[in-house]
Amino acid sequence: MKTKTIIKIIISAILWIIIDQILSINQIIKEALDPLMVGPFLEPIKPLVFLCFYLAEIAGTYGILNKLLDLLLKDEN
Questions:
Q1: Rounded to whole angstroms, how far apart are CA atoms 73 and 63?
Q2: pLDDT at 1
Q3: Quick one: which of 20, 49, 59, 75 is 20 to 30 A from 32 by CA?
Q4: SS3 28
Q5: How far apart are CA 11 and CA 5, in angstroms?
Q6: Can you tell me the distance from the alpha carbon of 63 to that of 48, in angstroms, rounded to the nearest whole number?
């Protein structure tokens, strides 16, 4: 993986943490899905479902910031 891509992912993750502290989208989703995920079969996969939402939010932040980060991390070649 290129260093540029790793830097973009790290910056996106840090910005996602800041956004999550201000407006916790995952908390809203967790509160909405908690009553639906009751039962012996759904209880074990609950953390996996929430992990998918965390990853989707980081990917969304990365997608939005990708062009901006390309401009900031432009190669001099």
A1: 15
A2: 61
A3: 59
A4: helix
A5: 10
A6: 22
- Those residues with Cβ within 8 angstroms of residue 30's Cβ, 6 or more apart along the chain or in another chain: 50
Q: To which residue do tokens 């996602």 refer? A: 16
Q: What is the pTM (predicted TM-score) of this model?
A: 0.63
- Element containing residue 65 per DSSP (H, E): helix 46-72
Nearest Cα residue to 42 out of 51, 33, 31: 33
pLDDT per position as a tens digit, 13-52: 788 788 778 877 778 888 888 888 888 888 888 888 888 8
Dihedrals phi, psi of 75, to nearest 5 degrees: -75, 150
Q: Tell me, what DSSP letter sits at residue 30?
A: H
Counting every residue written for the chain, the total comes to 77
SS (H, E, C) 11-26: HHHHHHHHHHHHCCHH
